Amino acid sequence: MRPLDPRTVRSLDAALASARELLIEQGLAGLTHSAVAARSGISRATLYRLWPEPTDLVRAAVTQHITLARPKPTGDLRADLLTGLTATHAMLHEPATEQGMRVMIERAAVDPRFAEVKQALYRSGTQAARTTLTAAVARGELPAELDLDLAVDQLHGPLFFRRLVANRTFDLDYVRAVLDSFLRAYSSKQSPEHGIS
Amino acid sequence: MRPLDPRTVRSLDAALASARELLIEQGLAGLTHSAVAARSGISRATLYRLWPEPTDLVRAAVTQHITLARPKPTGDLRADLLTGLTATHAMLHEPATEQGMRVMIERAAVDPRFAEVKQALYRSGTQAARTTLTAAVARGELPAELDLDLAVDQLHGPLFFRRLVANRTFDLDYVRAVLDSFLRAYSSKQSPEHGIS
């Protein structure tokens, strides 16, 4: 692929910076091609060429800032899960990605284009945890009958709930408390009435 | 308080039914006074009198359908938590309240009026669990050092994550699995390295 013209790169960066600012300040309602053009000085024609739909603007503003955890697994269950959840923590506290998640949660239910973007982010965002959990089951460190989807929800759900529903920030101590509670639930002796169903 | 004129009650019901339909079909963008007027046949003047702001429309459309769990606690920890989480399950699967939650998650970050409504719903929606957990700590069934906010997140977070982020529905078996895993984590013997911090 030919390297991009430096002027194009500068335009793109300026447009994305403006798009992120608008998303953070005003949410989806404020993220229009006209508003990005007015703030960044990039022409609307250029913006429409780069990102034809409002969905494309949101996706571009959000994904550029997502640093997906693709670390090499160390084989240490707790350490590997913590690496993945640390990336989730960062995503929920970086204003553009946080607000992008909020927008997608609202729009995904009524607009298939947003649903598609959100589904892709959900899949890539939880992939690290899935890989780590599957490897731990294979090593016998987690029960063979582990419900992988439930486990993913238990690890990520509290973080999303606290940031997006309770509207509170949190630190890595909180992430570790969620993780250690999860490990406790699955490493403890199980009494029959509380077995995994 | 004087009972409302029956015609006013009918107007109100018709307007709220239209507001819920618009919210479900189009999300917040479609829930305007004009659209509710066009669909319900109620005049815009009446709508503005009843609900001056778009926030008021959303709040009215959503809260009318929320059946908050205010059951008399039985003193059975698992049964009482399950009652509260069953109400959360219903809220996440009733289209108007589900979409209302999505709207508030998006708007709360950029509009203080929505933040206020969401905060009130969050508080009342988690109150049953807080009361139950506090009573169980007092009875010695849960550790005295239980982090109440963390526990609330662990019980509700997976449900919200699965419905609003993974965009999947779920049944009460899933709710019971989340609950039993939670009880397992806190009823097990705690090893020092995984203590509650």
UniProtKB/TrEMBL annotation, chains A, B:
Going by the UniProt record, its keywords in alphabetical order are: DNA-binding, Transcription, Transcription regulation
User: Which SUPFAM superfamilies does the UniProt record give?
Assistant: Homeodomain-like, Tetracyclin repressor-like, C-terminal domain
Q: What does the record give as the DNA-binding region?
A: 32-51
Per its UniProt record, what Gene3D superfamilies does this chain match? Homeodomain-like (1.10.10.60), Tetracycline Repressor, domain 2 (1.10.357.10)
Q: Which GO terms describe its molecular function?
A: DNA-binding transcription factor activity; transcription cis-regulatory region binding
Which is one Pfam family of this protein? Answer: TetR_C_11
Domain HTH tetR-type, first and last residues per copy: 9-69
Q: What is the name of the protein in this document?
A: TetR family transcriptional regulator
